[in-house]
Write a structure and sequence with these properties.
The protein has helices spanning 28-38, 43-53, 56-66, 76-88, 121-126, 129-145, 147-163, 172-200, 203-215, 224-236, 240-250, 258-269, 272-278, 293-310, 314-323, 329-338, 350-354, and strands spanning 68-69, 96-100, 107-110, 116-120. It has 360 residues and is mainly alpha-helical. The protein has a four-stranded mixed sheet, sandwiched between helices. The two termini are 31 Å apart.
């Protein structure tokens, strides 16, 4: 392992996953957030209305006229990656892909009828071949999961909310929908990161790409273990006030924080679920129609229960205490917010003092 914490690139002989269903790599939080989104009052009505009004043809014409379409004669290395990603995930129709001039590194998959993948020039210049392969796989994963439809709606509603912000109460309903869409989209990014790993099959390249998005093209100044330690510190440090600030910080974002994505992907790469997929044992698309919605709910509920149980975040630990019927919740809540080290009247010994610390 090198100084930056990465090993050499793997061989180019990568596994393929014929007929793979997006259920194989979708994060449980992605599925449950989408279910919650669809149950939001008025969402179905708004979505059906927007599906007929969204200027998808305008979007396609915009990229066609003011971006570079990836193909055999333009950005051929990206085109080869795109075809390769579709081959590995068995996506029959290769989406159109464009490179757009933009100083901010970014990529997206949008479109209602057919997905369009867009990557910015800054991202292309920032990432090496294997890092870019993971990004292309990430976007193809969005396409396979059908995320592009909701992403397009989110873009439209975000722009609409800005236009009607001056109207009293004009953007209240829109803001609620945007918030719900953002919550789902943040979870969908975790799913797409997994798809990117299935395509690139190089967890170190995926980690490098996320580190570069966070800190620029300075890998010699960065270390993957230290980067992942940031995610651990972010989750576990502070008190309930910090937990609330974390929620407020993430609400306007469409993507999870980069260190959190890296930690989530590293954890999944070492899981039994990932190994089973690599061994060829995964859900197939032709089985999707027989999928039990109840089972999906159970998986999502089990994921959230496990997340609360294992989380080191002060707020999540408090939720776990409440669920477990912990005593003196009022005192715990007061001490968490005030940072007080003293225990309740029930005890003053080491055990009581330890319960008031923030060591996780």
């Amino acid at each position: 392992m090198t100084e930056t914490g990465f090993e050499k690139a793997p061989a180019r002989d990568r596994r393929r996953f014929p007929g793979i269903s997006s259920r194989a790599y979708e994060h449980p939080a992605d599925r449950s957030a989408l279910v919650a989104l669809r149950k939001l009052t008025g969402f179905d009505t708004v979505f059906k209305a927007l599906s007929g009004l969204l200027p998808e043809r305008s979007l396609r014409l915009l990229f066609l006229s003011d971006s570079v379409r990836v193909g055999e004669t333009q950005f051929p290395h990206l085109y080869a990656m795109l075809r390769d990603a579709c081959y590995i995930l068995d996506l029959e129709k290769v989406p159109q892909m464009y490179v757009q001039q933009d100083p901010k590194p970014n990529a997206m998959c949008i479109g209602l009828d057919e997905p369009i993948i867009v990557v910015t020039t800054s991202l292309v210049e920032l990432l090496d071949e294997e890092e870019m392969r993971a990004v292309v796989g990430h976007e193809v994963g969005h396409a396979l999961s059908g995320h592009s439809v909701y992403r397009t709606v989110l873009l439209f509603l975000t722009n609409l909310a800005l236009r009607v912000a001056w109207i009293p109460l004009g953007n209240v309903a829109i803001t609620a929908l945007v918030a719900a869409l953002r919550e789902w989209f943040r979870k969908s990014e975790l799913s797409a990161d997994r798809a990117g790993l299935l395509v690139g099959q190089d967890v170190h390249a995926s980690m490098r790409g996320l580190m570069k998005v966070a800190g620029g093209n300075h890998l010699h100044e960065m270390n993957v273990d230290a980067f992942l330690a940031q995610a651990e510190e972010y989750e576990s440090s502070g008190d309930l006030r910090d937990s609330v600030l974390k929620i407020l910080n993430v609400l306007p974002r469409t993507h999870p924080f980069t260190t959190v994505r890296a930690a989530e992907l590293k954890k999944w790469s070492e899981s039994r679920d990932h190994q089973r997929i690599m061994d060829g044992h995964y859900p197939r698309r032709d089985e999707d129609k027989d999928t039990s919605v109840t089972d999906s709910f159970r998986q999502s509920a089990a994921h959230y229960a496990d997340s609360v149980r294992t989380s080191k975040d002060p707020l999540m630990k408090l939720v776990g205490d409440i669920a477990g019927g912990a005593n003196d919740l009022g005192g715990k809540l007061r001490d968490k917010f005030t940072g007080a080290g003293g225990g309740s009247a029930a005890g003053t010994g080491p055990a009581a003092k330890g319960g008031a610390t923030e060591q996780g």
